[in-house]
Design brief:
Elements (H helix, E strand, L loop, with lengths): L3 E3 L2 E4 L2 E4 L8 E5 L4 H28 L7 H10 L9 H40 L5 H17 L5 H46 L8 H18 L4 H15 L13 H13 L6 H13 L5 H30 L8 H30 L8 H29 L2
Antiparallel strand pairs: 1-2, 2-3, 3-4
Helix pairs in contact: 1-3, 2-3, 3-4, 3-5, 5-6, 5-7, 8-10, 9-10, 10-11, 10-12, 11-12
Length: 404
């Protein structure tokens, strides 16, 4: 039985054959079902659908900025041609896909060359940033460079490992150096504290010295003190007070006989427990009295510190209540549980605000070394004050949460 020729194929023994093309031989793609015309039209439409996919792909490639992303889809379509069941000019489709593949590979290669140049430039930019002394500025620049690096596509394959190693190596070195700087700064601060304490200990010898010998030794101690260098204000202030007290002639200040620190702490405890009413002015008066109390014994110093902490706690609670009355006009008439809830809410809000301020102060502190003198002292004073404010509020918050 002879075959019946059809466009791009033939019908033989009720089978539809696609003519061989390129490297592919004749291949059966289906059978005649209802009639020849309908069956042939079915396979011609399948080819048309495939051709439309290729046309759509060409359009996407032309309009896209990221052309390389279509390469795998193109290769998949190209591999599909040899097994696709349809009737049409498959060779023309192969030629079109082959041309697009060559175009994409050329584009990808050009992009890799451009990406290589961009990444090499970013590495040079990074080399400048990692050498900056201003840690905050350098860190911001490095994060910006890193974001641009990540957004940049792959470089030449043979250079990718080399470029990645250089880039990430510089970043690791910077952050290692930054960490080491702050650790060194902390160690230096601890050493200077010990040096100050040693000078204070030497000052004990003044008790046995008089006249010119005493004067000369004081000058020596002061010279040693000035040579030590800056530390955090919260650490420096008590050391300086202790040092100055040692330099004063005669006996050191002792506990006033008229001031009963034990009774004061008991009174403050009654205030805290709600057993005795108190007012803002009363607390300020007690605080003023306490400032004039200068014990030399460890127990007295500890009691004085506890009293100051209690007063700060009570002043903070008084401030919270004033805020509550301002926000809630009927605060005084509210139930105890509702009042407690409002106080806790206000406290948590203030703590969050104070912690945000502390973060800003710490960022500023990171930009200055201890050699910056007055600026560093001012920032460290702010840090110390802010930490103290937060500690008082957090202590009060815990007390409120434990209330019945």
């Amino acid at each position: 039985m002879s075959a019946k020729e059809i466009p791009f194929g033939k019908i033989l023994e009720n089978k539809i054959i696609l003519n061989g093309w390129g490297a592919y031989p004749d291949r059966e793609i289906g059978v005649v079902r209802e009639d020849e015309e309908t069956s042939v039209k079915y396979f011609e439409e399948r080819f048309t659908e495939l051709e439309a996919k290729i046309t759509a792909l060409e359009t996407e490639i032309e309009s896209s900025e990221n052309k390389g992303s279509f390469l795998m889809k193109l290769i998949h379509l190209k591999e599909l041609l040899g097994t696709h069941d349809g009737l049409g000019n498959y060779q023309s489709l192969l030629d079109r896909l082959t041309a697009q593949e060559a175009y994409l590979e050329e584009t990808i290669e050009k992009n890799r060359v451009r990406n290589t140049q961009i990444k090499q430039a970013l590495i040079e930019e990074l080399r400048v940033s990692v050498e900056k002394i201003n840690w905050k500025e350098a860190t911001q620049e490095i994060h910006d460079i890193k974001a641009r690096w990540i957004k940049t596509g792959n470089p030449k394959e043979e250079l990718q490992e080399e470029l990645d190693t250089a880039f990430w190596g510089l970043i690791d070195q910077f952050f290692d150096k930054k960490k080491e700087f702050y650790e060194d700064k902390k160690r230096l601060g601890e050493k200077r504290k010990r040096d100050y304490q040693n000078v204070i200990a030497k000052a004990d010898q003044l008790e046995n010295l008089h006249g010119k010998e005493r004067f000369d030794f004081i000058q020596t101690l002061k010279d040693e003190w000035r040579e030590i260098g800056n530390i955090q204000k919260e650490d420096y202030s008590p050391l300086l007070r202790a040092f100055n007290n040692k330099l004063k002639p005669g006996p050191r200040p002792s506990q006033s006989q008229s001031f009963d620190i034990h009774e004061l702490n008991k009174t403050l405890q009654r205030f805290t427990n709600g057993e005795q009413p108190y007012g803002f002015k009363q607390l300020e008066e007690l605080k003023t009295q306490l400032k004039s109390y200068r014990p030399s014994d460890p127990e007295g110093k500890n009691l004085r510190r506890n009293a100051f902490q209690s007063i700060q706690l009570l002043l903070e609670r008084d401030f919270i209540d004033k805020l509550a009355h301002k926000r809630f006009k009927n605060f005084k008439e509210l139930e105890k549980a509702k009042k407690r809830q409002i106080r806790i809410g206000i406290l948590e809000e203030l703590i969050n605000r104070d912690k945000a301020d502390l973060d800003k102060y710490q960022e500023n502190s990171a930009n200055f070394s201890s050699s910056f003198g007055g600026t560093m002292d001012l920032i460290e004073k702010k840090l110390s004050q802010q930490k103290g404010k937060i500690q008082v509020k957090e202590t009060l918050l815990q007390l409120l949460k434990r209330e019945d």
